[in-house]
Amino acid sequence: MSDQIERIAIWNRKSAKHQFSLDLGNHLRRHWFFDFVQVAAVLCFVFWSRHLPAPGYAVAVIGVLAAAMSLHLEMQAWQKALWMILIGGFLILEFTAIRKDRSDFADAESTKRKEQLSQFNTIVENSKSVANQNQAQFEKMMSGIGKNIDTVTGANDYGYIVYNIGQGSMAFIHVGEHPLYEVEARFVDTDNMNAAPLGVVISIGNCAPHVARLLNPMPFKDPRQNFTITFLARNGSWLEQLRLRKVDGKWVQALRVLKVEVNGETKRVLHEDIPKDYPLDGNGKMDWDK
Question: How many domains does the chain fold into?
Answer without folding.
Answer: 2
